[in-house]
Amino acid sequence: xxxxxxxxxxxxxxxTRRQKALLTYIVNYKRASGGDSPSYAEIMHAxxxxxxxxxxxxxxxxxxxxLISRAAGGKSRSIAVTGxxxxxxxx
Length: 91
Description:
Elements: H1 17-33, H2 40-47, H3 52-64, E1 68-70, E2 79-81, H4 84-90
Antiparallel strand pairs: 1-2
Helix pairs in contact: 1-3
């Protein structure tokens, strides 16, 4: 029996400014670093967020939209941009 695949849904609400800022930062960071992911601390500093839990909340929202994925277990620096060309072309 195969493992169940995550189910993504298109959130009818537009992304918040903070979610757009996080996604833009992640995409630009990955481009500049050759594919590495930023840490929560780097995201916090770059986007002006004061708490790691706020970063996690917004990353979860981006993940539910199917725009990013993170490794199981919450490993640091494990963010993959899964929105494909759409994300890279829009940012």
